[in-house]
């Protein structure tokens, strides 16, 4: 009997240059360590995505050479950003020409477990149409998925959960605590730490504790 093969997702992960990223998180660690923390969160996010059996390729959209070097080493493919075009343009660019279903994920998910992501991707595949996962608070978006040939049409930014719903995407309501825990503020970092962050983020937190 043939067993079901999960879809081969192309995952697109956008990362801002470290010097300008995660402004709301400033103060959570000393200023000199802030870029290390942002990079560590991106590394843990990408490592968890790469660990998903149903993900064929991770495309990182980023202009920062330090980020590109680290994430290429992990196994991601890095493509350049369009300066000043913003997050949604970066995601649309990263998704261009994908040869399978596409999933966009933010790079601030340091507690992400491959098992939660695998489960969310299976739910997205079952939905069979554009679908998104809201963040823990319910207002933002941590994941937007689209079947092959359907434009990603990302509406990330403030109030993106409502924007994705308005744009016709289906909301996926699984629990997936490690996926829904994005880190924008120091309080979010505490919450992610309580869930259990990945090794890179854990190491940065240890150095300042
Ligand atoms: N490539 C790229 N990535 C972006 C851009 N803007 C945001 N991102 C990434 O998108 C994800 C979600 O963005 P935010 O949570 O708003 O991150 P941020 O803009 O660094 O954070 P704040 O400065 O606190 O608003 C993060 O992984 C960011 O690095 C952009 O213009 N280009
Ligand atoms: C870009 C987003 O992230 P946040 O609102 O967490 O900055 C979003 O949720 O669409």
UniProtKB/TrEMBL annotation:
Pathway: Cofactor biosynthesis; coenzyme F420 biosynthesis. Its EC number is 2.7.7.105. Phosphoenolpyruvate binds at residues 141, 157, 160. It catalyses: phosphoenolpyruvate + GTP + H(+) = enolpyruvoyl-2-diphospho-5'-guanosine + diphosphate. InterPro entries: CofC (IPR002835), MobA-like_NTP_Trfase (IPR025877), Nucleotide-diphossugar_trans (IPR029044). It holds the Pfam family NTP_transf_3. GO terms for molecular function: GTP binding; phospholactate guanylyltransferase activity. One of its GO terms (biological process) is F420-0 metabolic process. Keywords: GTP-binding, Nucleotide-binding, Nucleotidyltransferase, Transferase. SUPFAM superfamilies: Nucleotide-diphospho-sugar transferases. Residues 44-145 form the MobA-like NTP transferase domain. The keyword GTP-binding applies. Guanylyltransferase that catalyzes the activation of phosphoenolpyruvate (PEP) as enolpyruvoyl-2-diphospho-5'-guanosine, via the condensation of PEP with GTP. It is involved in the biosynthesis of coenzyme F420, a hydride carrier cofactor. Belongs to the CofC family. This is Phosphoenolpyruvate guanylyltransferase. The lineage of its organism: Bacteria, Bacillati, Actinomycetota, Actinomycetes, Micromonosporales. The gene is cofC.
């Amino acid at each position: 009997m043939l067993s079901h093969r999960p879809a081969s997702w192309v995952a697109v992960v956008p990362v801002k240059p470290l010097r300008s990223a995660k402004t709301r998180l400033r103060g959570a660690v000393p200023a000199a360590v802030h870029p290390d923390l942002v990079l560590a969160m991106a590394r843990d996010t990408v490592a968890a995505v790469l660990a998903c059996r149903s993900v064929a390729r991770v495309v990182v959209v980023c202009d920062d050479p330090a980020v590109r070097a680290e994430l290429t080493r992990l196994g991601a493919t890095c493509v350049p950003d369009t300066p000043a075009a913003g997050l949604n343009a970066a995601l649309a660019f990263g998704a261009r020409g994908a040869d399978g279903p596409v999933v966009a994920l933010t790079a601030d998910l340091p507690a992400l477990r491959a098992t939660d992501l695998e489960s969310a991707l299976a739910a997205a595949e079952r939905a069979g149409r554009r679908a998104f996962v809201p963040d823990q608070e319910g207002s933002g978006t941590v994941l937007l998925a689209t079947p092959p040939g359907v434009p990603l049409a990302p509406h990330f930014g403030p109030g993106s959960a409502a924007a994705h719903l308005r744009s016709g995407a289906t909301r996926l309501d699984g629990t997936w605590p490690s996926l829904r825990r994005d880190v924008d503020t120091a309080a979010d970092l505490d919450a992610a730490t309580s869930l259990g962050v990945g090794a890179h983020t854990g190491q940065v937190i240890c150095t300042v504790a």
